[in-house]
Write a structure and sequence with these properties.
Blueprint: H1 3-27, H2 30-37, H3 41-47, H4 51-75, H5 83-97, H6 101-116, H7 118-146, H8 154-178, H9 186-197
Helix pairs in contact: 1-2, 1-4, 1-6, 4-5, 4-7, 5-8, 5-9, 6-7, 7-8
Length: 201
Amino acid sequence: MPPQRSKTVESLLAGAERAFAERGFHGASIGYICQCAGRTTGAFYSNYDSKVKLFLDVFRRHSDRTAEGVEQALAAVDTSRDPAAALAAVFAGVADRVLDERWLSLTMEFRLMAIRDAEAAGALAEHEEQFNGRVGAALDAVYARIGRRPVLPGPLMAALLGAMIRGVRLDRGFHQASGGAVPLDRAALERALHGLLAPSP
């Protein structure tokens, strides 16, 4: 990719991340994305032929940052103590920090759209497989260090944890919006995850 195009794409990605977070996938027009990016619509169409493809690049970038953070946290787990407690703390932290309300809403909006859009569904499924493979490999490495096996292979465990965390955050979001008590606070989530992440005998 030529340096100038790389700079343009980076501006579009940054502007799109802001626009999507503010207005959602459907609410963020190409014009508003370009306004946030400080670029023209011509620059957009020179690099992308659809808003879906731009969103997928934004989604991958956000997910890559998440995967890198999880990999680093898992590599630092102290396996001389209770590894399940340390792993539970890592993933409870992901639920607290990574999926803020705006990004969660955007992710759920896109997942619902993907159910009805074959292009988005295929790209999302491919991305999820790669993401779960990365996190799963990092999980398997933790269990390998203690010479034990997880209840599920790492990639399947990563898929399950991702689905659980999204569901927990979704429920927390509408309870918070209603002013009600938040179910499955961090302490409860850590207890549940501890049981799931305990190594097999």
